[in-house]
Write a structure and sequence with these properties.
Elements: H1 4-38, E1 52-58, E2 62-76, E3 79-83, E4 88-93, E5 102-103, E6 108-112, H2 115-171, H3 177-231, E7 233-235, E8 240-245, E9 252-253, E10 258-263, E11 268-275, H4 276-283, E12 287-290, E13 293-296, E14 303-307, E15 316-328, E16 333-343, E17 358-375, E18 379-380, E19 384-388, E20 394-398, E21 401-405, E22 408-411, E23 420-422, E24 436-439
Parallel strand pairs: 1-24
Antiparallel strand pairs: 1-23, 2-11, 2-17, 3-10, 4-6, 4-9, 5-8, 6-7, 8-10, 11-16, 12-13, 14-15, 14-17, 15-16, 17-22, 18-19, 19-20, 19-23, 21-22
Helix pairs in contact: 2-3
Length: 452
């Protein structure tokens, strides 16, 4: 328990504290009243949403004609190895016979010794003449035998009539038995004569046929010797350029010995390998069952441009796809055979295609509607694209990739006219709906570029 003095002291302290608290409250109220009277409003700050700055570009949907490019070497369509067709010693060759010589169809390239073949022709002609004379002799003999056969037949008829008449007279006892027998014997001898004549005639006709066969064989042999004689001159079967020469004067050759190789420089083919996956998109390839198996149809409605990269402005050609040569499973490529058809205009002197040129071949295939071409950097992980809509909000979408076109990617997604594509990797932490500011806004048109 407190004493009286202590109780009074405590009461005084409580009173003092109450007075101090009251004064503080009054001071606060006074300050508040002063501020209210002054009417000073605190500064207002507008709330600003966080905005991320990213690189991007504007793209435009449109009609894109799919393209791809391949490379190939110009090769002659007709390249022939000319060989000797007979044996013998090469007596002469074209004095200019060497690689690069341009020859015309029918030009003599080399000559093989003709002596043996000329003698063979003379011998075959003489043999044919002999057989033809024998044929004429046999024909005359057959004609004579035929005439003899006619005469013998008349005699047979007479002897038969005589014999029959003697038989009637013998029945009437007008002739003797001896006269009857003589007539019968004459008739029998005439029959034998007829048989001999017919046999001789048959033999003669057989000999005619046999000799006629010999004549045909002799004619064939004569033709063969003439062909061999003609083959002693090795001539160019087509117009073109010599690419290889194998023989020289005084060399001995046999049938099948190569003489030279000749290429037609007017008609060319280019073998081009193309990625099978891309080609199937560009050409819309289709399989077709044929009698001999399954194959791909030759692509149609494809514009082909052939360019020699060394002088691309002066050596430009239109072309066409002749056929699909094969599918290579190891490289997963199609091998197409392309043929040039028409040279394109040139600002300076146009250059022809020459065998050995390594050319770039561009193919323009099917038309793709409502497609978009975006830079390769605009493709995000897992084949997605980051789109900034008209409200500057992020929207990550799945990319419907049609094909890769060089440094760009062709997609079939619908992109609005006010939307943009982010062309950098998205930083971590960004989610759909976040506000994005796009920098480096360079439009990408829908015009197709070459797949290198």
């Amino acid at each position: 328990m407190y004493t009286d003095d202590e109780s009074k002291t405590i009461k005084h302290l409580f009173a003092l504290r109450a007075i101090v608290c009251g004064l503080i409250i009054l001071a606060g109220a006074g300050v508040t009243w002063i501020f209210v009277r002054i009417k000073v409003e605190p500064p207002q700050h507008e709330f600003k949403e966080f905005e991320k700055v990213l690189e991007g570009t504007t793209v435009k949907s449109g009609s894109i004609r799919l393209e791809m490019t391949g490379y190939g070497t110009v090769e002659p369509t007709d390249e022939i190895q000319i060989s000797a067709e007979i044996r013998g010693r090469v007596t002469t060759t074209n004095k200019d016979l060497s690689v690069g010589l341009v020859v015309k169809k029918g030009d003599i390239l080399a000559t093989i010794d003709k002596s043996d073949y000329q003698l063979a022709v003379v011998e075959a002609e003489a043999n044919l003449i002999q057989l033809q004379e024998e044929q004429e002799l046999l024909a005359q003999i057959v004609r004579d035998v035929k005439n003899e056969s006619t005469t013998e037949q008349d005699l047979l008829n007479l002897t038969e009539s005589s014999w029959k008449r003697r038989a009637k007279l013998l029945a009437k006892k007008a002739v003797s038995q001896e006269e009857f027998e003589v007539a019968l014997q004459n008739h029998s001898r005439q029959k034998l004569a007829i048989i001999k004549v017919k046999s001789a005639l048959a033999q003669g006709e057989i000999k005619l046929k046999v000799n006629e066969a010999k004549i045909n064989m002799a004619k064939a042999k004569l033709n063969q010797t003439k062909v061999d004689l003609r083959r002693s001159e090795v001539v160019a079967p087509i117009s073109g350029r010599l690419t290889k020469v194998f023989v020289d004067d005084d060399e001995y050759v046999t049938a099948g010995t190569p003489v030279c190789e000749l290429a037609n420089d007017r008609v060319f083919d280019i073998s081009v390998s193309l990625d099978a996956k891309i080609a199937s998109e560009v050409f819309n390839l289709k399989l077709r069952n044929k009698q001999y198996g399954v194959s791909f149809d030759t692509p149609e409605n494809v514009d082909v441009t052939i360019i020699w990269p060394e002088l691309p402005e002066d050596c430009r050609w239109k072309g066409r796809i002749k056929r699909i040569k094969k599918f290579d499973p190891e490289t997963r490529t199609f091998v197409l055979i392309v043929s040039p058809t028409e040279q394109l205009p040139s600002k300076s002197k146009p250059l022809p295609l020459v065998a050995g040129m390594f050319c770039r071949v561009t193919f323009k295939g099917r038309q793709l509607e409502n497609a978009v071409k975006i830079p390769w950097s605009g493709l995000q992980l897992n084949d997605r694209i980051a789109v900034v809509d008209k409200d500057s909000r992020l929207d990550v979408r799945k990319a419907d990739i049609v094909m890769v076109d060089g440094d760009t990617v062709i997609i079939s997604n619908r992109i609005g006219p006010d939307e943009k594509i982010i062309t950098q990797r998205l930083p971590r932490g960004l989610v759909n709906g976040m506000k994005i500011k796009v920098m480096s806004d360079n439009p990408v048109t829908a015009k197709a570029r070459n797949v290198e």
